[in-house]
Write a structure and sequence with these properties.
mainly alpha, two-stranded antiparallel ribbon, 4 helices
Length: 108
Amino acid sequence: MYIFTVETRDINMSIKNNPEKFPHGYVFEITDEEKNEVVKNVDHLEKLKFSPYLPKDFTEKGLYMLATILKSKRTTKANIAIIEPLALHLLAGNLLLSCCVEMASFND
């Protein structure tokens, strides 16, 4: 199984070697029941049924942190895809704040 074109073992090693990048709520193991449900509903994960390990699940923040430590062309593209809309959102927020300050000065 690959995420960001990086093998699962490399992801697990990255998480183990960088625990400070994955605080509580960034990554967690799914339960055995959840694993069985995923295997039942997602055909290409059939091999997961025989794995003795419980898969990890990442929140959006966890995926971003994972993308910052993994080295591949795809993770670089993922980082850019995350950062671009965030930058636009921050810029829009700053513009809105500037407009509000400007409008407040008209009321004085």
